[in-house]
Design goal:
The chain has 11 helices and 12 strands. With about 350 residues, the chain is an alpha/beta fold. The chain has a 9-stranded mixed β-sheet with strand order 1-2-3-4-5-6-7-8-9. It has a domain of about 250 residues: TIM Barrel, CATH 3.20.20.70. The protein starts with about 25 loop residues before the first helix and ends with a strand. The protein is globular, with a radius of gyration of 21 Å. Helices cover about 25% and strands about 15% of the residues. Helix 10 crosses helix 11.
Length: about 350
């Protein structure tokens, strides 16, 4: 049995929300982030889906622009209460692949470990929006033990991906103990953390956290950023600290209408990532989460954006455009198909003859 991760009933060091974060409709209205007269209609949204915006994100919102792409990601709207027929509470089928609480085992060689459901910010397009937020924030000590035991008992598991919620919301002590337990499993060769913290709350990336992120086995941190303005000087410094601590950084981005559905914006974002040693990894087509229809583009629109980017960006800055198949069948690449009957089409749209078997 793995060693204890947390002391029973000791929650004092679990995680702490950043002081000054806006976590209610009233706080958003007081900060000028909700137009006058609209706050009353948003309390029902906040009651269903968690609200939080860190001071770091508040500072870069242009309150003079009603369509500001940063505000659009975090400020609730009444449209979130409209669920379309194709939307579902568990859009990528986590529940169907959860053999024990906190584990999602969709692929043979890797598992997700969802240690907590708290985030520093709550994105209005989140595919786990029915799960994250206040209440049920962390797995219990026994649940963590059961999750680690499951990983230990399945030698095909090569990679463990800490997600949630945001794993970097855990205190350094708790996160370090969890990583130690995972690293001690012989067949787990590599660890990965998915996080928005370096971007939205970079001050959390301090010496204590960096110390526990220095690992014997490879550690990859997938940094979630959707717009170049999010890469503030503080965020860049946090990412550089993670790199110096030995982590390899990947970039995760969600393609969002009204935020980054423009090749020029994504080009700027991916170039900025590479400049900070973040390899753009996935560009996610938005999932069918309830109340998120306003963020979704068609796949055809996404493919056209990727076709344009193919002609503008080095391969170092090219993410894979992916769709998580609804229901849990997994993630598949959906980028533009350049092979057509009669030839190959280049990034400018020209068809070139090419003999095919």
């Amino acid at each position: 049995m793995p060693p204890p991760i947390f002391r029973v009933n000791d929650t004092r060091e679990s995680f702490v929300m950043q002081e000054g974060s806006l976590r209610s409709v009233s706080a958003l209205a007081a900060a000028g982030l909700i137009p006058e007269g609209q706050a009353a209609g948003l309390h029902a949204v906040a009651a269903r889906y968690a609200v939080a915006i860190t001071p770091n994100m508040v500072r870069i919102i242009d309150t003079g622009k009603p369509d500001d792409p940063i505000a659009r990601q975090f400020v609730p709207t009444a449209a979130e209460l409209i669920t379309t027929p194709d939307e579902r509470a568990d859009p990528i089928g986590d529940d169907a692949h959860s053999p024990v609480k906190g584990i999602v085992h969709r692929y043979p060689d890797r598992v997700l470990l969802k240690a907590l459901h708290a985030c520093p910010v709550y994105c209005r397009f989140c595919f786990r929006r029915e799960q994250v937020g206040p209440g049920g924030e962390m797995l219990s000590d026994d649940e963590i033990r059961a999750a680690i035991a499951y990983i230990s008992d399945h030698p095909a598991i090569w990679e463990v991906i800490l997600t949630g919620g945001d794993p970097l919301m855990l205190s350094p002590r708790r996160l370090g103990a969890l990583l130690d337990a995972l690293e001690a499993i012989p067949h787990v060769a590599t660890l990965r953390i998915h996080s928005r913290v370096p971007i939205v709350e970079p001050a959390r990336i301090g010496p204590a956290l960096l110390a526990v992120l220095t690992r014997r086995k490879p550690l990859w941190i997938a940094v979630h950023s959707n717009h170049p303005r999010e890469l503030t000087e503080a965020a860049k410094a946090a990412c550089r600290s993670l790199t110096r601590a030995g982590a390899t950084l990947l970039g995760q981005t969600v393609l969002l209408r009204g935020v980054n559905d423009d090749p020029a914006i994504l080009e700027a974002l991916f170039r900025a990532m590479v400049a900070e040693r973040i390899k753009p990894y996935y560009l996610h087509h938005p999932d069918l989460a309830p109340g998120t229809a306003g963020f979704r583009l068609s796949i055809a629109e996404g493919r056209e954006i990727m076709r344009v980017l193919r002609g503008r960006l080095s391969g170092l800055a090219q993410p894979t455009y992916v769709l998580d198949i609804p229901g849990g069948a997994g993630k598949v690449p959906i980028g533009p198909d350049m092979i057509e009957p009669g030839g190959v089409r280049d990034s400018a749209g020209r068809l070139h003859p090419y003999e095919q078997d």
